[in-house]
Amino acid sequence: MQQLTVDLGDRSYPIQVGAGLLEENPFFVDLVRDRSVAVVTDSHVDALFGGRIERLLGPAAHQLIRIVVPPGEATKCWDALDRILDRLLVERFDRQSLVVALGGGVIGDLAGFAAAIYQRGVDFVQVPTTLLAQVDSSVGGKTAINHPRGKNMVGAFHQPRLVVADSGTLASLPPRELAAGLAEVIKHGAIADAGYLDRVAEAMPRLRAGDGAALAEAVVDSIRIKAGVVAQDERESGARALLNFGHTFGHAIEAGSGYGQWLHGEAVAVGMVMAADLSVLLGDLASADRDRLRQVIASAGLPVRGPSWPAAHYLSFMSIDKKAERGTPKFIVLEAPGRARVRKVDPGLVALAIAANTG
Amino acid sequence: MQQLTVDLGDRSYPIQVGAGLLEENPFFVDLVRDRSVAVVTDSHVDALFGGRIERLLGPAAHQLIRIVVPPGEATKCWDALDRILDRLLVERFDRQSLVVALGGGVIGDLAGFAAAIYQRGVDFVQVPTTLLAQVDSSVGGKTAINHPRGKNMVGAFHQPRLVVADSGTLASLPPRELAAGLAEVIKHGAIADAGYLDRVAEAMPRLRAGDGAALAEAVVDSIRIKAGVVAQDERESGARALLNFGHTFGHAIEAGSGYGQWLHGEAVAVGMVMAADLSVLLGDLASADRDRLRQVIASAGLPVRGPSWPAAHYLSFMSIDKKAERGTPKFIVLEAPGRARVRKVDPGLVALAIAANTG
Hints:
Two copies of one chain form a homodimer.
Chain A lengths: L1 E5 L6 E6 L7 H7 L3 E7 H15 L5 E7 L8 H13 L7 E6 L1 H13 L5 E6 L2 H7 L4 E6 L2 E8 L4 E5 L8 H18 L1 H15 L3 H21 L14 H10 L7 H18 L5 H13 L11 H6 L13 E7 L2 E6 L2 H9 L4
Parallel strand pairs in A: 2-9, 3-4, 3-5, 5-6, 6-9
Antiparallel strand pairs in A: 1-2, 7-8, 10-11
Helix pairs in contact in A: 3-4, 5-6, 5-8, 6-7, 6-8, 6-10, 7-8, 9-10, 10-11, 10-13
């Protein structure tokens, strides 16, 4: 097992990465001892790992319940949230209770938000079981549900007490989910570490084949980058925004096609291509670097072209994005592999970058 | 104008107390300059002060909208919350936007919670227009909505950037609302400052008559006590719990009779009598001190007896209270006027304290 730390003063927490962490884990067991524990998961993940986590934590906990929601992005909604909160109330969970988010990014966001607002906040633990969640969404305390008018528009910053990334859970991932996770791995390299981007490109065949050691290494390297950014800027007033590279375009694809049609990582993959193209249009990035990034994305088995909507349709889903300020969207652009910055961009250029990468 | 500060490091904020703060207020105007501002209020308060705040802030703001919800505790619900969030999205409010809570405790809790979760948190300003909100709920960052299974069960700690307590707004308060506010004034004296409790008792006729100077003095003294407690213990892991004196009983009265039948302050008034009686039963408080407290409460025009339900009915609404730990309720008891502490109490004694003060 490797252990990293997100350094946030009295809200610092450890991230464990390794195989078998859901089978033996004294630290996790100690954390839940004598507490009421709610494991929030979806029906698919529950079938795979629900029993395992109950065997690990059940004997130490005061009580342990499982709250099982339907799989998929559509579950990040008011109804599922209220169902979780209602169950916690019915079971008389108090402020000392603990919520475990067992699953991918959807579960982490939903269960984390429930923990953030139940009785004004209870502890929670992230147990990410997808590559996307392990390398990205489980670290940093962003929680949210979607609103019919926009993705992640209702949420909270609520840091977990612990992140348990068991590499063994990745073996069960379908290839499409694995590829979606690689999008965020590539993103971390693209914005922060050109050498890491090269290593990922080289390891791509092993990563796509689900090689445990290669994946664990990518998880550790990605988390190291993300944890460093989050520690600098917990609430995204500055550097943390760079982690949204590709996401403004990606959100438009997800929202415009109805949440759940595109996987988040797939939408981000196309978004990164568009953002790289925008960087070239702005004169910030060499076109060879854009081409190289696109090639790495494609080699991960990810899409590099968005739905063939008019650019205006994309733009209509961008202007209320959380990164917008008074309707003028900001974008994260690349200056070189491993170096990104935020800038306001004329919507005309954005439309060009979109039009060049659709259909 | 008097100004106090809640000292919470980089989340510290000023509290302004005085007459005319909604007519001239350079600090408040500067805070909203060039920002999108949503004034959340109820129809009753809007009719009284909506125009005034729009005249004060409108010229400086980038845009200003008013979101008007129905008055009353029933408004602290999912539906009203979603209506506010939806409106903010329709108006394309971004993360730099600011929410102003204009009204009593219900509005402060609801609008504050909306600000806490809109795009993972935007700034908000409390403009309390009732005595209850000025002396208590507007300070400290507690926000929440009610759940059918319990009061304030869903919420967040989200500190305002500024509290504007315009004493002029209290002139419009009906006597019943004024009395409800005095319950929290009395509470602050009872738990933290015996001398203040004496001064309040002495000033009671002027306070009940709505004397501006007497009220402003009570507001300043109460806020000073509350701000000190909050600065020590922002998230209620220790000393802040003492501010809940009378509230466990009071919540049972509010929840058991359907939110809105009893005003919060009225329920707390009876709750304080029950809690003082419990303190006597435990041998912590002299019975003369309990009698004195009950007399001060009665002199404020507040009820001192709860609904004539069986004690078990009260208890059924207490065990899932947020202050409960694994079903054993904790209570704040008095050791003397001005001195309180938390202790776990046998439910049998609690039932006795209830039964002695109902009907």
